[in-house]
Task: structure prediction
Amino acid sequence: MDNLIFAAEVFVNGLMAGVLYSLVAIGFVLIYKASGIFNYAQGVMALFSALTLVGLMNGQVPFGHLINAIFGTQVHHFGWHLPAIVAIVLTMGVMVALAWIVQRVIFRHLINQEPIILFMATIGLAYFMEGLGDMMWGADIKKLDIGLPQGINTGIDSFTADLFGYGFFIDNLDIVATFIAAGLVVVLVAFSHYTKQGRAMRAVADDHQAALSVGVSLNFIWILVWSVAGFVALVAGIMWGTKSGVQFSLSLIALKALPVLMLGGFTSIPGAIVGGLIIGIGEKLFEFSVGPIIGGATENWFAYVLALIFLVFRPQGLFGERIIERV
Amino acid sequence: MKKTLFGTLIVGALTSATPAMAELVFPSLSYRTGPYAANGVAIADGYADYFTLLNERDGGIGGEKARVIECETAYNTEKGVECYESTKGSGALVYQPFSTGMTYQLIPKVTADGIPLHTMGYGRTSAKNGMVFRNVFNYPANYWDGASVAIKHLLAINSGDIKGKTVALVYHNSAYGKEPIRTLEELKKKHGYELLLLPVDHPGQEQKSQWLQIRRERPDYVLMWGWGIMNQVAIQEAVNIRYPMENFIGIWWSGSENDVLPAGDGANGYKSLTFHNLGDDFPLYDDIRKYVTDAGKAAGDGTHVGTVLYNRGLYAAMLAAEAAKTAQKIHGTGKITPMQMRDGMEALEMTEEKMTALGLPDFGPSFDVSCENHGGDGFAAVAQWNAGAKQWELITEYVQADQDVVNPLIDEDSTAFAKENNISPGCG
Result:
């Protein structure tokens, strides 16, 4: 009976972890769906946006180290602290500007290139952004506190303690992340279905040529998509950065999104959500039940095994589009 | 005219890039970029600043200028090996890669090339046996010493009896993280505690399963062998489940300011091992400010001075400089070779008097190096995080690891290595 209760706790925590994986995966899906580009830089975008957010909140002078090294000055901070909401809006502005630059400087020149070329361009972009983030904001680990609650939810703890005689641990941050992810999906779906730009985005995703023929600007749509992906990266960066501090390892969260994408499909936002949940629950329950028998640390590889098992039966992922190419 | 000018510039650039042979070269395989940059910057700054101080204040080491060649590895083992290959021809006296992965790759290379390798508190533990690992040194302490000192601390706070207590080890699921298991299992037989092993996959961003298990099983103590983001996440998760932080002890690679600051006040009371002292309240740091940071000659922006990892980089440089001085004395020359440096390292004696004279009183344990013992005497202390003051504080003296347990394990492992690699152990 105890094990069943513990498994239930693990199950709920798996769900919550899955939501965090989905947050990263959605960014990949948005760009892939609209442009066919597998954006290797998505993890670095989350890092860059979180670095920018903390930097703006703390009033840090961007490129301070560089300025000081060149001019022999000692400028580090502007001396002000921005409220979180203002810093988030400004960071979003930076991500939109970045989307514009990425489109103008890189992808505008690569239209009609092979997908592998576009993929390689995003690898270059990832390294560039990592270096840029380092130069702008420094390599220190930064505490990110935008007022999100963290730690055990005492309500759930005492409720489950009364019910089962064992209080469940659910992190308040994970609960917030779940609501934010749900809100994000609703906003994205509403945006893509009920706004002109959203419909244009879907048109481009369905057929580039057809969208172009009816006057949709491919350049604008790609900037829009990269901006929205930047927004999703910012949300993921906030959640993961709050957990561990904002640091360069954050770029590795992309590793957590890959099995989610394989399972849910590269072209479906609901797929990213469902895929994330399945991976989250699956890896946590496997670690709980089988991990102790085989030495533990199963979560990373089990996520990929689970994704591969699904691929055998649905190569396009659970919600992905089935692509049939005739010779 | 243009051609002449261009040619002159090229020749000038090449001439200035050629190493001056009279310099003592100390390569620094740094990682100022990549996922572990936050740690790498402080270590590299401390290492470089100490040699800058010696050059600016003393004119170098034994009359010879020290030169630090920094090569960026981003904590990538392949890049580290490339850095080694590209710098070894510059007259490199000793390598200190600050990476266990690189250490394993470099051991056969330095052995073949006759260049010493110093892996202070990391790397291959059994390299302590200098009769097998002739060119590798790991003084003043190694991972197995760390495991033993952690258990000794638990014994000390439990009046010498931890029988029946449960000790969990949260470790990075890699060769590094698995290092203390053998020692902890041996110590378990001796002291009668239960050992709970909880591996965490690289990089360690997601540890919910491990900490839920800790919450369920409530081990009396948690030890951690982590690195980078794994540390910050583990400490935050411990705070989240309200694990008593004074019962949570990290190895020295899990005990910098970087590891505790993201968790804020919740990290108060967390403990970590260390094999060197903390803070900047030492006479030498006045000189660091006067001759290096305030003079605009620091490797970084000076903000890391006195932090745990800066001190570790500085301590590594100080030990290298002292070994170079010893080598100069033994061989009667200022311009020592890598093999002469090795002799200096093998004859190194670190005493309290010497450290006081250097302006670093009580900065590290006293130890002697010999052919048989390349690893020092295994002394380490316990530090505790004071979140209010935002500083680490030493809460114990330097305590010696249980040599009766550690040394037989080292003999066993190094003998097996010697057998596999056809090495005849000896001091000749």
The interface with chain A takes residues 32-38, 40-41, 173, 197-203, 205-206, 208-210, 212, 215-216, 228-229, 232-233, 236, 239-242, 258, 261-262, 264, 266, 296, 301 of chain B (CB under 8 Å). The radius of gyration of chain B is 22 Å.
